[in-house]
Structures are given as C-alpha cells and as structure tokens.
Specification:
With about 150 residues, the chain is α+β, with helices and mostly antiparallel strands. The chain contains one helix and seven strands; from the N terminus they run αβββββββ.
Amino acid sequence: MAVIPKDPLDWLTFFQQQINEVFNYLSAIEVKETNGEQEYLPLVDIYETAENFVVEIELPGFAPEDISLSICCNMLVLEGIKQQESRCKEVNFFCLERNFGRFCRAVEVPPTVDMNRISARYAKGVLAVIFPKVHDKSAIIRNIPIEQGD
C-alpha cells in the first residue's frame, strides 16, 4: 500500500510514479502481444500534378521483396516487413531509434485515375506510385439502363 504524501510537491512525485507504473505495464503487454516486434509505420506523401496523382512512401533500407503493393477496390494497399539486422547477442545499445517490424498502409485511390496505367518505382528509399488521371469524364461515369419489370 502506498504512503499518502502530505506536501503538494510530494503529490507530483507520487503521481509521476503511478503514471510510470501504468506506462511500464502497458509497454510490457505490447511487447508480449507482438513477440518483441513493434509496428513500423512508413511516412506517406500524397500530391497531385496536372497529369497524375502521386503517392510516395518512405521505405529506407527495404529490399523490394519485402514490400507488397496491390489495389483492392478503391484502395492502394502497401504491406511489408522491415527486418532488424542480426547482431551478436552481447550487443549493448546506447541508442536505438530505428523501428522494425510489419506494417500495412492503405490509401484511397481517387475515382478519376486510369487503373490500367498505374506504375510504381522504388529509388533512394522512396516508393512512388503514380496514378495517371483520366481526362475523359465519360470513362468515369456510366449510365445504367433500367429494365421494365412485371
């Protein structure tokens, strides 16, 4: 059982200790659930030019075979895994800021793109997916005939 502080400054220290315990507990649960892997979340830029919509995803250090790119309905789906380099077990890190692990990012594809001409290129750690725009609006909007029923 915790001792209740009397001094207001001691309350802040007590509160900080309680918060630290909560975060330590939550961190321990997360590591157990993911088997030590943290989710990697690549950064995404989306922009438009006169001719294209472009999605750029920052993926430094990835091998192309570790990346999967697909279109599902109107969503661009990027999945992959960033592997941590194997090191001997007696390594003591002073600083470890890089993230490793699985990821999945989904970006909605605008309806005004030509789905048959989508291209992607991976250079200097950036995956660029180019969606050419459709200039003929009749290719986007279709009239559906209505049949007379009994």
